[in-house]
Design a protein that fits this description.
This protein is α+β, with helices and mostly antiparallel strands. It has a single domain, classed as 3-Layer(bba) Sandwich (Chalcone isomerase). Helices cover about 40% and strands about 35% of the residues. The protein contains seven helices and eleven strands. The chain has helices spanning about 1-25, 75-80, 95-110, 115-120, 120-130, 170-180, 190-195, and strands at about 25-30, 35, 40, 45-55, 60-70, 85-90, 95, 135, 140-150, 150-155, 160-165. A hairpin with a 2-residue loop joins β10 and β11. α3 packs antiparallel against α5 (about 120-130) and α3 packs across α6.
């Protein structure tokens, strides 16, 4: 009888743990867009730092999730992190390549000083050309902007690499500031990516 009780308790504990693990696989649900609690980039497990929705004039444009080697809540701490990083954008509406490119440049201009922009001018130009080469982003598209140490900034659209690898970490940090800089693209998205809510 004791053995049966212990066996039942062990089974129950195992089931509860299994349920917890399954539930833990989804860390954030942003208006129906689900972000896993971890992502593997360059062989490393990254944790979801935060996720939120980018809106423009109350129109939902994309959900964004920031993955890091460990959770950080300031831009300076994120810039100092070693190891890979990932910013994931999941489109919730169609956006033309022209509109996306203009938003990218607007974000860079608002958050990156002239000297830094001059330093990364060729990389910024290549990034713009990359989006000019695709017809646009469609609802449901998934865009990953990855920093891979020893390689550079790698961009994937729906699992396929697009554009050239950009080798400078400073450039990746500059791009991240579009979303988490002093003048972010969306004032409510920044604290969400920094894990503030």
């Amino acid at each position: 009888m004791v053995t049966t009780k212990h066996g039942f308790k062990g089974l129950l504990a195992g089931l509860l743990l299994a349920c917890f693990c399954v539930q833990g696989a989804i860390a954030a649900d942003v208006n129906g867009v689900k972000f896993d609690d971890t992502a593997k980039v360059a062989g490393k497990d990254l944790v979801l730092n935060g996720a939120g929705m980018r809106t423009k004039f109350i129109i939902k444009v994309y959900a964004a999730g920031l993955y890091l080697t460990e959770k950080k809540n300031t831009v300076a701490d994120i810039a100092r992190l070693e190891g890979p990083r990932r910013l994931t954008l999941v489109m919730v509406r169609d956006v033309s390549s022209e509109d996306f490119g203009q938003s990218f440049m607007s974000g860079i201009n608002s958050n990156v000083g002239d000297a830094e922009k001059a330093k990364y001018a060729s990389q910024i130009s290549k990034f713009g050309e990359m989006f000019g080469a695709i017809p646009g982003l469609k609802k449901g598209d998934v865009l990953h902007l990855d920093w891979i140490p020893g390689s550079g900034t790698v961009t994937e659209l729906n699992g396929k690499k697009i554009g050239e690898v950009v080798p400078d970490l400073g450039y990746y940090n500059a791009v991240l500031r579009i979303w988490i800089g002093d003048k972010p693209a969306d004032g409510s998205l920044k604290p969400a990516l920094l894990g503030a809510r």
